[in-house]
Amino acid sequence: MRLSFWSYENPAFVGICGGAMSLKGAEILLVAPRGDSYINVLFSVYKRSIDFTPVTLCTIEKRELSEGAEDKIKEVIENTWKDSPPRLLFIVTTCTAELLKIDFNAIRAWAEYILMTPVIFIESNSFTETESEALDHFMVELIDRFTVHALKTRVPSVNLIGPYYFGFREQSNLEELHSLLSSLEIEINSTFPWKANIESIRYLPAAWANISLSPESSMRTLELLKSQFNQPIVKTIPIGELGIKRFIDELAALGLTDGKLKLSDKDMLYGMGSYIGRADNFAHSVNAEQLRRRKAFVFGSFTQAVGVTRFLAEELHFPVVAAGTYSLALADRFREELAGIDTEVFITNDFKEVRQRIMDTQPDLILATQMEKHIAADLNIPSAIISPPINNEMFPVSFQPIIGYRGAAHLADLIFNPLTVGLEDNLKRMFGEDEDDIEEEVPAV
Amino acid sequence: MRNIEDRAGCFFSFCPLAAIGWLHRKIKNSFYLVIGSPVCESFIQNAFGMMLFAKPRFATAVIEEYDLFLGTSPKRILEFAKEIANGYKIDVLFLLETCPSQLLKLDVARWAEIASAELEIPVINVPISGLDASFTEGEDSILSSLVDLCPSDAHRPNLILVGSLAGSVESEFLYEFRNLKHPVSFLPPAAIGELPSISEKTTAVFLHPYLEQTRKKLAARGCNIVSTVFPLGASASRQFFEDVFNALGVSAKGLAEREANIFARNAELHGRIFGKKFFFFPDTQLEIPLARFLSSLGGEIVELSVPKINTKLLSKELEFLDNGIAIIERADFNEQMNKILLTRPDLIIAPLALTTPLLQKGYKVKHSMDFILLPIQGFSNHRSLVELFTNAMI
Predict the structure, then answer these.
(1) pLDDT tens digits along A352-368
(2) Of chain A residues 118-137, which have a CB less than 8 A from chain B?
(3) Helical spans, DSSP H, in A82-152
(4) Residue B113 predicted with pLDDT over 70
(5) Cα distance from B263 to chain A (closest Cα, Å)?
(6) How many Cβ atoms sit within 10 Å of the Cβ of residue B355?
(7) Domain spanning A12-129: which CATH class is it, in words?
């Protein structure tokens, strides 16, 4: 056993349900104690679009412990879908069903026969597997099952691997990436699992290369596609203007584009084009100049922590005192990515260690997860959320990407807004406060 | 004979661990250690959005793969308990069982005894799992464990109000009972040192219908348990105070006038309930008192389903509930969705998991968690209780 006060990673079934919920036309059968239907709470509370993936619950109660659960599961499947089978059905379990001896593979085969529709059961381990590992596993299983060899598309195209329901600002990032790629005249062959269906999974191999905005949860999938279908992996994540430049260079090196953005006059005036260079302009402004004598602290999931640290250090010249990640599996790559940056790199998934580092380094701004936001509030340090785990700020109602040109502009705002760089605080620090400003102590009764 | 049917169906509700969400604020310096899987941990962290403080009042002893084969030594739990006691000011530590801990037959009760002896604070085993309990029953399990710690040294009659209440409701009830000769106390108390004394001279009143285990324990200790309704709405509040005063042999004054005044003041608001159709999904076990309340204001109850019926605690509620209303225990979700199509309710009272999906299908929905987390009891909350329903129908 281990003692945990807070976990940066959700368990496996969140990854599998999140993946299945991201698909089009899929339905989920959750076999679990009824409390585990909180996945539906997560799903529906943060839902920003009106499409809806039904989750049907087959509850495990005391009776199922003695009498077995097979009959009940079959009954629920028949009652729910006999007359209207979904296009794709997932059977998902949590720790309780895993501990019981239920032959899910037999149930899966039976259900497929009865419903005459593909039924998928992904064997997961709630005790060892994390959300991101499970999502990767989920994608690998679907590719194994549905993908065929296909001719490459005529025009250059890519797959976007890994965007899914519980991703960080996924909808906005995808919109921005779509604009960026189409201005480079690269087509999106398929996104997976986001809005994917059996057809689109089948033809994943038609793309020239694969892009992932979240290597945390897609490395195995990317490697599989690379080895089986000869699709190279685009490694750069286009966060920050320099990040975008490296991203375009990488796509050009793979022969997908000549690297020149094709943008209409309209785009340049009102669209993505009008954002090109904004973050760079900001970096050369009196505002950004103020940042240089402050120091930032970055912590988060691999992708966001790398992207934000590099954007701060290389583009805004905002010193980063420490940069960390909880993506333990990508520790080496994290160190590699930040090798050129003067900062203290650390890897941990213990929030108390992160808290200690914050106290030791005394940063002026914290860019991290929801947990560090609470720590920051406690220590009275400005902060912003730039990373999962799941919280409200990952799912803005409006368009707020963090990748691409508009993402870079948004990041500049996100970083600058929490800071009070006005004269007032500085003057207070230099000359002290007015008597009115000092809160009177409440006399003890 | 009332029509009660147990469908033994699958329905959505929260895990009983959710009770930590309100009890960690209610009982000062209490700490909750969940003996569970990463799934339990993630529930606590996510479902309630409870991480409001960088210093949480709960943690998880996460069962790892090797525990499944090698078992767990009590030493490990003791280490955790010590680490918690060192990092936080705690007066009481609850060890909460879960579905996986029960399936693995972990001996949490013994761990609690060992830790209690070592730490010199109460360490309390809470035997509960989502296999046989839902949402609000977590509070029941915690309170019934607390009963074991209550002293029995009362020399004179006392009154205990059982069930966690908002601070404002507690003050109101203390005010109502200000002229009693009985000392009045609460279970759960504001601090573990203030546990009420329980004896045969004790009169207990229950504020929630889901506290069946606690009721059994108090009855076993010889308490006189007042049979009454739950004080939701002005009429039920009048009935509630009348019943309590009667049980204590005190005469109640002016209650009927207050009820009448509240009805006169809110006539227009009540009109918005009259003739409307209400549909209850099973979730909190407050469904029966709430349906009785709406029905008394002229609302039509088209579906009344509950996770469980504790007939002893609900006996008076069932007397007052219109006899034509059928009750469904453990309803089946698919059947209920079909019933919604047939009955076209004006308002659906649903668990949080279903609220947004139903709203987006175009229904008016009130999520049931508000009935747990907002002050709704007593005369002064009559209007806000009605408004919880009317606002959701706008």
Answers:
(1) 999 999 999 999 999 99
(2) 125-128
(3) 95-99, 104-115, 131-146
(4) yes
(5) 36
(6) 24
(7) alpha beta
